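Key result, reporting period 2: structure in, sequence out.
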């Protein structure tokens, strides 16, 4: 237990103000490229926050700045209420890097024991913690103890990475593409781990390409395109409520229909608009109103359609469909 780290529910655990990053590039370092532009966002305690964006959008850059791995060119941020870079705060943060590098002649157990040691977790406690983490991430103890990591599959390494990110029982966890390289079962397990961390009240900030996972586990999300946050909010803020229906009907009168469809309008010979009220009751009253139902579908787009539309609006040349549609 870490009483000093208990967070008030309404506290912003991650907050950034106009974070920007400009890299010097070219052989003579005389060119610049801006990877992050005025990035402002807020993540509340206990939230699961998803940062989405096509390849090269700046997701990893933002995470690395927050973790103090690289420096921002301008702007500021706080983590757990402290300016980023604050050393004691790091004790309460976990991080799964995008391309984790492991000392691959070590076994997973030795590696986790080593990282636990860096956090000065006493030996007995460390052993207990490693055992329970291996169970959590779905890695057999026998394998973890006996097999060197150079003989692990990509999915097994990702599980070690996840265990490593949680070794210090962090309050705030950054996960850069946690589902990457995992088969459907592995993805499911990572989703379950994230949900169980959430149940324990932890704050999770993750980058992902896999929009279906994001849709299932995120409380809020932001979309990055060419270094800029182009939209952010809850799924409901961005996509609309999950039970809003769009209808197309024929016949009836505007007076009757408007009680159900306040934004009713004519389209060719039909009426179109959004249904307000109970769907079953509306269907039951169609005969009485002399109305024929031609179409009724959820008005809310999928996150994938929304994502592609937003990225295309912001960057018409983005090559995203293949990447995202292949995985979703
Ligand atoms: N060290 C560096 N020097 C110069 N440019 C860099 C450096 N690191 C990243 N960049 C550039 O910054 C931009 C953002 O990169 P970043 O890795 O943050 O993207 P990303 O959204 O994480 O992409 P991916 O989905 O592929 O992981 C890219 O254009 C990349 O080429
Ligand atoms: Mg990345």
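The corresponding designed sequence is given below.
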């Amino acid at each position: 237990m870490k009483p000093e780290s208990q967070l008030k529910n309404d506290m912003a655990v991650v907050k950034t103000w106009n974070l920007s990053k400009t890299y010097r590039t070219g052989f003579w370092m005389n060119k610049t490229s801006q990877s992050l532009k005025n990035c402002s966002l807020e993540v509340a305690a206990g939230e699961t926050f998803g940062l989405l964006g096509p390849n090269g959008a700046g997701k990893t850059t933002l995470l690395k700045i927050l973790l103090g791995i690289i420096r921002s060119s301008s702007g500021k941020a706080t983590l757990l209420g402290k300016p980023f870079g604050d050393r004691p705060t790091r004790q309460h943060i976990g991080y799964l890097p995008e391309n984790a590098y492991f000392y691959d002649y070590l076994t997973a157990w030795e590696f986790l024991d080593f990282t636990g040691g860096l956090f000065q977790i006493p030996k007995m406690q460390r052993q207990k913690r490693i055992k329970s983490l291996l169970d959590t991430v779905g890695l057999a103890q026998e394998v973890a103890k006996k097999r060197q990591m150079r003989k692990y599959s990509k999915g097994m390494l990702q599980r070690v990475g996840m265990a490593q990110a949680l070794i210090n029982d962090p309050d705030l966890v950054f996960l850069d593409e946690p589902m990457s390289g995992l088969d459907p079962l592995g993805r499911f397990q990572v989703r379950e781990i994230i949900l169980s961390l959430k149940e324990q009240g932890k704050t999770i900030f993750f980058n992902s390409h896999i929009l279906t996972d994001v849709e299932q586990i995120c409380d809020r999300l932001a979309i990055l395109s060419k270094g800029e946050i182009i939209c952010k909010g809850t799924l409901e803020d961005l996509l609309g409520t999950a039970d809003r229906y769009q209808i197309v009907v024929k016949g009836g009168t505007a007076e009757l229909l408007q009680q159900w469809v306040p934004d009713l309008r004519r389209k060719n010979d039909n009426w179109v608009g959004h249904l307000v009220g109970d769907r079953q009751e509306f269907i039951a009253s169609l005969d009485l109103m002399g109305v024929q139902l031609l179409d009724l579908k959820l008005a809310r787009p999928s996150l994938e359609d929304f994502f592609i539309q937003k990225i295309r609006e912001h960057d018409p040349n983005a090559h995203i469909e293949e990447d995202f549609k292949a995985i979703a």
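The first strand starts at residue 12 and ends at 25. The radius of gyration is 24 Å. This case is discussed further under Risks and Mitigation.
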